[in-house]
Amino acid sequence: MKTDHQISAISVETFDYNLPDECIAKYPLEQRDKSKLLFWNNGKISDHTFQQLPSLLPENSLLVFNNTRVIRARLHFTKKTGARIEIFILDPHQPSDYALNFQQTRECSWKCIVGNLKKWKSGELTHAVSIGNETVAIKASQLENNGDTVLVKFEWENPRFTFAELLDAAGSIPIPPYLNRESETIDQTRYQTVYSKIKGSVAAPTAGLHFTDEVLNTLSTRNISTAELTLHVGAGTFQPVKSETIARHEMHTEHFSVNRALVEKLMSHNGKVIAVGTTSVRTLESIYWLGCKLKEAPKSIADEMFVEQWEPYQNNSDIEKTEALGAIISYMDMNHADHIEAATQIIIVPGYQFKIVEGLITNFHQPKSTLLLLISAYVGNDWQLIYAHALTNEYRFLSYGDSNLYLK
């Protein structure tokens, strides 16, 4: 693993490439699994379709999916003056738990980004929401302005409806800003994975968008097992790296949940562990580092289950994977829990030594992004050959674009 000094010297410009606008997929393909699949197999590149994925995976592999579901996070209000205010909800504040917040029937508060904030100095905003044959007025008021974000309180008078139901009725899917269009009806289904379950993300784990029920069913014929975790993707996933070196970039924090069944499966599995998407990579690697801390000082982190940005590069732990995962199981036993909830700020850059992930399914990522650095951490400088091949062979890029399978 690289030292702190070597990390600080990583130039972000090294991870730039020319991405023509016409190569960015503005809409999904008619059929999910008809997308192209670039297969990088320990330095060799070949072209396939996503329907062929099961035949390319090593037998006895374990695919780990992120089952988060994108919420309709954009709410639009109109003031009496005619000014339009967009409230983009990011993280639950009160209650702070996603599930509890969505279940509220009177009021809740969220950390938000507010569009056209200069037109909303004070006072309540009201939006009439139609649900079935009823109309519910949802009110928004500012609790605290923190500059980049605003703490917003939402209230409504009809207790028959939860906040989740109000969002489903009034909100819109927050498609990526680089698509340069408003969300449309097609995005309501296609900007979700077919296995999405747990509401909480403001962006899709896009590597999973290619999977269909048919592809998932075919996996079992190759003796390929599957497992799920939950990481709620935040708006920070689109945050560009503005610093010259990666050491000065502050990684965004995301919340995740991992159950006992997954941890036990990771401990006992004797095939390759393949992450579906960079969010699954970040979660799987984060639980290793959480396990290391729990093994060394379980009581000291009980109230703060959190992996800091540079923690893996400072610890250089030699704890075995099974030991780290075993510490997580012991922690669950001690707390009579069947899952852990934690947060991670981990940043994975060239020189990182993967502790759990042995393969990756992902999309093509933006130039100079932390996601591209994560890819380089796995494939090395071959990312340049991979992306050059994709551009030359008319692959579609970014969220609605084509897919990659990386194996060593």
Question: What does this protein look like?
Answer:
This protein is of the alpha/beta class. The chain has 2 domains: 4-69 and 188-407, QueA-like (3-Layer(aba) Sandwich), CATH 3.40.1780; 73-171. 25% of the residues lie in helices and 27% in strands. The chain is built from 12 helices and 18 strands. It has helices at residues 4-8, 53-56, 98-102, 163-170, 185-190, 213-219, 260-268, 278-296, 311-315, 321-334, 370-379, 382-392; strands at 36-41, 44-49, 62-66, 68-70, 74-78, 84-94, 107-115, 125-131, 134-145, 150-156, 198-201, 225-232, 254-259, 273-276, 306-307, 339-344, 359-363, 403-407. Helix 7 (260-268) runs antiparallel to helix 10 (321-334) and helix 8 crosses helix 10 (321-334). It is globular and about 60 Å long. The relative contact order is 0.19.
Essential attributes:
QueA-like, alpha/beta, globular, 2 domains, 12 helices, 408 residues, 25% helix
What strand order characterises the main sheet?
A: 2-1-18-17-14-3-12-13-16-15
Gap between N and C termini: 18 Å
* CATH level 1 name of the largest domain: Alpha Beta
CATH topology description of the largest domain: QueA-like
Number of helices: 12
- Characterize the biggest β-sheet: 10 strands, mixed
The low-confidence parts are none
